Amino acid sequence: MTDPTGKSKGFGFVSFEKHEEANKAVEEMNGKDINGKMLFVGRAQKKAERQAELKRRFEQLKQERLSRYQVNHLFL
Q: Where is the RRM domain (predicted)?
């Protein structure tokens, strides 16, 4: 994707006919270094879906931290 001057916006979208092809692209390209820049390749998500996923991950990390805290401290 480019801005009106033709400069790259640094992102783009690709559509695949087969789900397997999309998964393969993510596996092979995500994290790859291209000209000193690390690529992020993932499935496009709607804003609400992305926010729900981030909230779920945050809650999971919070629970992991709480369980670690409880295991590492003994009260006598």
A: 1-46
pLDDT in tens, the chain (76 residues): 889 999 989 888 999 999 999 999 999 999 999 999 999 999 989 999 999 999 999 999 999 988 877 766 666 6
How far is residue 38's CA from residue 29's CA, in Å, rounded to a whole number? 10
Q: What gap in Å lies between CA 54 and CA 51, rounded to an integer? A: 5
Structure tokens at 27: 């596996």
CA distances from 30 to 38, 41, 43, 64, 75 (A): 8, 5, 11, 26, 45
pTM of the model: 0.57
Tell me, yes or no, whether 36 and 72 share the same domain: no
